[in-house]
Design goal:
With about 200 residues, the protein is an all-alpha fold. It has helices at about 1-10, 20-30, 40-45, 50-55, 60-80, 85-100, 105-110, 110-120, 120-140, 150-170, 175-195. The N and C termini lie far apart (about 60 Å).
Length: about 200
């Protein structure tokens, strides 16, 4: 056991291997879901020493956090060219863009609700990131949310977003038409709630 612990803590000057680590983790998550991915499997498939991976990402959840942050960064970078004067159209565009990007690794992203159910502590750990994601999308869309209700609407949009993800997981249509219909209904609910508190 002492030898194993020493190996995992070993320092490497060649730690900048994120692309290979991330792509391997995504491939494994696509195949079996994030809840079943381990650092040992990532090491075996990527042929990178496990201590190199563990030094950069002590847990698989740290890799997942990197993946989700990168996804949000991609959306923020691409969103500008698609934003209009309509906050509702902007939110729809952002949601569709997010689904388009997640569809490239559908198996992995679709497994996230299962991970949350199997590991509630990890789900709780990622709750602030979900709220940050909601906040980012609302700001990018320029949703007119009164400051007094900002937290409440972040929570509401987070809940609506999770329901959209659930619909997307079950949608087998090629054009995701069922998911698009759910997005339209959820945005109508969000707009109604916003109107009730004086949002324009």
């Amino acid at each position: 056991m002492a030898q194993k612990r020493k190996r995992y803590q070993r320092k490497s000057p060649h730690i900048a291997r994120d692309p290979k680590i991330i792509s391997t983790a995504l491939a494994l998550a696509d195949e079996k879901g994030w809840a079943s991915v381990t650092l040992r499997e990532i090491s075996k498939r990527s042929k990178l020493p496990i201590w190199d991976i563990a030094e950069r990402y002590p847990q698989v959840s740290d890799i997942l956090r990197h993946v989700l942050k990168d996804l949000s960064a991609q959306i923020e970078a691409e969103a500008g060219a698609h934003m209009t004067d309509s906050w509702r159209e902007n939110l729809q565009e952002l949601l569709m863009l997010r689904l388009e990007l997640t569809n490239k690794n559908r198996g992995g992203y679709a497994s996230l609700p299962d991970l949350a159910r199997k590991d509630p502590l990890t789900a709780l750990e990622f709750a602030p990131m979900l709220l940050d994601t909601a906040d980012s999308m609302l700001k990018l869309a320029k949703a007119p949310i009164p400051e007094t209700y900002s937290v409440a609407f972040k929570v509401l949009f987070s809940a609506l977003y999770l329901s959209i993800i659930d619909a997307w997981r079950q949608d087998e249509t090629k054009d995701l038409s069922k998911t698009m219909a759910v997005i339209d209904r959820r945005l109508a609910m969000f707009e109604k709630a916003l109107t009730m508190v004086g949002g324009q």
